[in-house]
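Technical appendix A lists one of the benchmark inputs used to test multi-chain prediction within the project. The record comprises two sequence entries:
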Amino acid sequence: MNTAIGIAYLIAAVVFIFGLRQLGSPVTARLGNRVAAAGMTLAVVATLVSPAGSGVLPSGIHPHAVNWIIIFLGMALGGTAGVISARRVLMTAMPQMVAIFNGMGGGAAAAVSALELVHLTEAHLRGGSGGQLATIMLGSAIGCVSFAGSMVAFAKLQEIVGGGAIRLPFQQFIVATLVIAIVVLGVLAAAVTSSYAIFALLILAAILLGLLLVIPIGGADMPVVISLMNSLTGLAAALTGFVLSNELLIVSGALVGASGTLLTQLMAKAMNRPLTNVLFGAFGAAPSGGGAALAASGTVREISVDDAATLMIYADQVIVVPGYGLAVAQAQHQVHELGELLEKRDVSVKYAIHPVAGRMPGHMNVLLAEADVAYSQLFDMDQINGEFAHSEVALVVGANDVTNPAARTDRSSPIYGMPILNVDQARNIIVLKRSMRPGFAGIDNPLYLDPKTAMLFGDAKDSLTRLVNSVKAAP
Amino acid sequence: MNSSIILGAYVFVLAILVGFEVIARVPSMLHTPLMSGTNAIHGVVLVGAILVAFQARNPATDVLAFVAVVLGSLNVFGGFVVTDRMLQMFKPRSQRKE
């Protein structure tokens, strides 16, 4: 490899590591992302100028004019589409966006692997060694799994297909069979390089595996799934680096593969569910019997806007519990306004953020920060859970599953054992909710039947606006 | 097995160890941006796409190379921009524009 380009790749790899480190702290995160983007620019530019110095491409290979057209047209098209969609996407739809971009990366890795196979088998290159062929087969299979899995995750979050969990018969058996089939097909495709038919079957089997892995998983678990697919794409990208003898690809891919796996475990831990349970548990597939019986046995108490406003005005402390409903209604600004008005009346206002509030860890923090809610008012579950018991009001805005006391008490509940916010310990609970429909996990919430709980039905934004007006009008 | 594969394996294993170390303690509010940021970094597969596109020699491989470059670019550009948008919210109030 040309020394200058080799050094550029080395710098890019080091820059990625520093960027990743900075992404782990709130103060430096944005800088870290930009540092990583600068590293990426360096890597791409170095690659584009590489044919001039050569050494990066196999000897005797010089790009044709059509290759340059493909590359610049492709980058212009993909880059423009990427930037525009990333700019336009609503904050609430961020998780889907990440899933899509991740799927694109997986697809790219699979396509690169396939092209490596073609180049290796065609006469103009060195013959492929067993190790090279193995990395090609693995890279294409993993890339396809990630592509297909990410697309399903996107479709579920976007609600193109049903968001709930679907229990497929013999899912684990089919998945195991597909994995074995992929291994066998990979060995055969490496042995028989005269035809690409077996390789095509491998691609098909891997896409099918990706679909079948994610389709049964309920929407509430999608963050974990996207994170897992993210680390798979990293792995696939690393594998493409072996045949190209490109250490930058190997380093960056492996870096993402490892940190993505760790992140996946952190997310699963925040939901108190082992990863295997997320993948094969079919969360919330059947409505729990206990929950259904409860709905019939209790009564729901409604509250008027003015009563709710009065309750909060005379409270010492109000804890706001935001959830996905707030994100959907785009009501972060209204909740901030209400908080400000209450603070002016000497009510202490705190925001309780469950680790998986919204649809992704950190989603709620981003939304509330967008609305200028001060960081000092945001509290993690562990920090705030002790405070509910001496708070006058807990105001639940579009959160459901993360407040469900059944997670603590009902062993038959699918979310049993998930850490929840102790909303039910507050002296009064006001729930802003569109209807009595169950939440994302598809289970009933006994909190709504608690005698201390009052429901304020309606769109979160609308209800909050009316609450704001009522607080303003109050003497 | 040739030595470049072995060398690659060394780099791979060491990078995995670094990957586990580098994000040891991340507050949960940064989980989503971090996932998005790592998502953008594996967009480095665009480098691989460019390298195979240089070598494409017939219409079928041209098309596949084009697909690889488009998908890789979507991953890189979209990934970094979306992460930046998420992290924009983490800036102190006084410094924020928009």
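Residues 59-88 of chain B form the longest helix (30 residues). Residues 33 and 86 of chain B are 6 Å apart (CA to CA). Comparable benchmark entries are summarised in Table A2.
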